[in-house]
Write a structure and sequence with these properties.
Distance between the termini: 9 Å
Shape: globular
Helix content: 10-25%
CATH architecture: Roll
GO molecular function: acyl-CoA hydrolase activity
Domain Thioesterase: 57-132
Keywords: Hydrolase
Protein name: PaaI family thioesterase
CATH topology: Thiol Ester Dehydrase, Chain A
Order of helices and strands: HEEHEEEE
Strand content: 35-45%
Mean pLDDT: 94
CATH class: Alpha Beta
Structural class: alpha+beta
Number of domains: 1
Number of helices: 2
Pfam family, one: 4HBT
Radius of gyration: 16 Å
Length: 154
């Protein structure tokens, strides 16, 4: 991309976080894509596949946790441009079985702007019904975002 067309400021940070998400090795296990439209919110579109089912034919809890944690995490880390946040706690509430097909996790920052951040997320199935909800606490780490291979601003 020519330098004059490269994103700057918050937009560059959000695109770099999207690249960081895509570069994480764990995301080779899940068909998913992170979108950050603005600081403090996130959306992950993903597919629920039969290879993630538990014995009763719906998504295993690992899918719920991963998507909720990631959506909340990126909503919070979108407000921090220098450090990687770490999940310190996460509460998850299952409300409906998640079946095969497209789904999305929506994350939203709730509070905190210095050291500890709180964010929440929810998963919606293809019909728009909520299947799970979670709230996480995230701590500013000593890991510089600029030192992570997948974080590529501008």
């Amino acid at each position: 991309m020519p330098p004059e067309n490269r994103p700057t400021g918050e937009t560059a940070h959000l695109r770099a976080l999207e690249a960081l998400y895509a570069s994480a090795p764990v995301n080779q296990l899940f068909e998913s894509r992170l979108s950050l439209a603005e600081g403090g919110s996130s959306e992950i579109r993903f597919s629920v596949l039969p290879n993630t089912f538990h014995a009763a034919g719906a998504a295993h809890g690992t899918v719920y946790f991963k998507m909720l944690d990631d959506a909340a995490f990126y909503a919070a880390n979108s407000l921090v441009s220098d450090r990687f946040l770490l999940t310190t706690a996460f509460n998850l509430h299952f409300t409906k079985p998640l079946r095969e097909g497209p789904a999305r996790a929506e994350g939203r920052w709730v509070s905190g702007k210095r050291r500890v951040f709180v964010a929440e997320a929810r998963i919606l199935d293809s019909s728009g019904e909520e299947c799970a909800r979670g709230t996480g606490t995230f701590l500013r780490s000593h890991i510089a975002l600029s030192g992570l291979d997948g974080y590529r601003p501008g």
